[in-house]
TrEMBL record:
It is found in: Cell membrane. The chain crosses the membrane at residues 30-51, 88-112, 124-146, 158-180, 201-226, 261-282. It comes from Sinosporangium siamense. This is Sugar ABC transporter permease. Residues 89-282 form the ABC transmembrane type-1 domain.
Amino acid sequence: MTIVKERLIRTAPPAPPPPHRRRVPRMGGLVHVLLVAWGAVVTLPLLWAVVSSFKSDAEILTSPWSLPTALRWENWARAWTEASIGRYFLNSVVVVGGALILTMLLGSMVAYVLARYEFRGSRLVYYLFVAGMAFPVFLALVPLFFVVRQLGLLGTHAGLIVVYTSYALPFTVFFLTSFFRGLPQAVAEAAFMDGCSHSGVFFRVMLPMAKPGLISIGIFNFLGLWNQYLLPLTLNPDENSYVLAQGLAVLAVRQGYANDWSGLFAGLTISMLPVLAAYVIFQRQITAGLTAGAVR
């Protein structure tokens, strides 16, 4: 028995040497430093604008980096009423809200059809939308001006809503098409077997499943449309219909004569609040939508 054991021990293959692991330089610390620096570059100007909105004009000019001695909420009231920021704000809500509703409805329907149904020319339609993302908007300003004027929509909210929708539709279709392709087809087939129609499957089954993607693209479109300045500057010459970006530009020009810098900073802060509120409320859905789209 001892001889057999010795033979077994001798004939057993030697254990392979542990694999040599290359030492990868740790770049995590440098990345964190760069991210913190970038966050400071982005955040500090915003905080400075918010702090300056509570100062008096004398404090802004004499000590721009100090904290306000008192919170002057009258700056916000003056910007909302005397500078007409309230009217411009409501105009932006109407225009951006209407454009978002149309964009999300049309974009989701087009994306669902392109993702789920194969027909002749479907890929051509998809690539046309992709090409629309690369088309510079300023090249279309002159044709858009004449088209909108011929339609009688120049200087109206309806004209801006239509143009905003066409501006945001290509990216919406591109984003949601890849998202709908990743949704399970078995769920839609089961709904069809239960007697559900095509529209019923879309609105009752697939659209709720695509909620993270819809929220993500909705926030992206909201950011782009809320801060849009070039399109309303060209297509919205009526001062009563000015959106918030136009109103802030007019307010900034007037500061050279009125010296109401506190009102200007208050108006800037008011314009930032909807964007910050939308991101804070839907940040989890945005992250989930982006992660789901990346995994698919």
